Amino acid sequence: MTYRILKLVLSLLVYVFLRPQVTGLHNVPRRGPVIIASNHLSFIDSIILPLVVPRHVTFIAKAEYWTGRGLKGRVSRWFFTTMGHIPVDREDPRAGQRSLEDALQVLQRGDAFGIYPEGTRSRDGRLQKGHTGVAWLALTGAAPVVPVALRGTDKVQPVGARLPRPVRGIRVEFGVPIDPSRQIAAGTRPAQARRRLTDQVMSSIHEMSGQELVA
């Protein structure tokens, strides 16, 4: 109930001040495991995406959001906990694998998981080469991947900015789902299969976002 109220309030604020243009929502399955794979331009991406998708989307977030002190720390901890995001300690040498294992549990419950295949926010606006974790999740969890292209969120909250600005022009486009079982030819080595699937996801995001794709 708290999550629904928070999502409703934030959705109203986002649509009033930012007026995002959302297309392709029909491509997001209404039930069953699904991976929402997006480009990453700004911190606010992790707020925009869960608000526009008509189902609960879980993200991985750095553990620092749960460990802050004072009023800001308590608000941050309450917000990320209420949104259902999963903390990950980036100092842990197994942080990457633990994140994938946590994400797999989300998919095995039949829920939606959000991921940024680039691994971090783009500093120069270009679309970076995707990490193969998204493909590992898709193949292991038997989950389709819905590619997403975000535009304009870097103007709302540029890298380094503490607070978002009421800049309109945000666009969120959801592409055609990619079924991992149909992309891998028989006899393909696992590592090669993951690379091919990841590259296909990034190619789809590239076509929708218009970003320069780093080779």
UniProtKB/TrEMBL annotation:
The name this protein goes by in its record: 1-acyl-sn-glycerol-3-phosphate acyltransferase
Natural source organism: Isoptericola halotolerans
GO molecular function (one): acyltransferase activity
Keywords of the record: Acyltransferase, Transferase
SUPFAM superfamilies reported for this sequence: Glycerol-3-phosphate (1)-acyltransferase
Domain Phospholipid/glycerol acyltransferase: 34-153
Superkingdom assignment: Bacteria
